[in-house]
Amino acid sequence: MEAGSGAKSSVTPEMVKTVRKAFNGFLIVGGGIRDVKTATSLVKQVLMH
Predict the structure, then answer these.
(1) Please, which domain of life does this record's source organism belong to (predicted)?
(2) What is the pLDDT of residue 29?
(3) Mean pLDDT in runs of 10 for the chain (49 residues)?
(4) What phi, psi does 2 have (nearest 5°)?
(5) Separation CA 21–CA 11 (nearest Å)
(6) What is the phi/psi pair of residue 30, to 5°?
(7) Residues sharing a CB contact under 8 Å with residue 36, sequence separation 6 or more, in sequence order
(8) Using an 8 Å Cβ cutoff, are 11 and 3 in contact?
(9) For labelling alongside 4, which of 11, 16, 21, 39 has CA 20 to 30 A away?
(10) Is the CB of residue 43 less than 8 Å from the CB of residue 13?
């Protein structure tokens, strides 16, 4: 999943959760994730179902 290089915001946690429910393979999310804090926050939000 790609928000685009230079995106002002990353893919939403809701979008990642929706794709994860429909797709059981490797899921790579990029674009708009510029630091560890943002990446960690996104992972935590997605894992909380």
Answers:
(1) Archaea
(2) 85
(3) 76 87 88 87 82
(4) -135, 125
(5) 16
(6) -150, 175
(7) none
(8) yes
(9) 21
(10) no
Amino acid present at 21: K
Counted residue by residue, the chain has a size of 49
Residue 36 CA to its chain's centroid (Å): 13
Token pair belonging to 41: 């926050």
Structure tokens at 4: 């685009």
Residues 32, 7 contacting (CB under 8 angstroms): yes
Residue closest to 12 by CA, chosen among 3, 20, 21, 4: 3
Structure tokens at 39: 């990446």
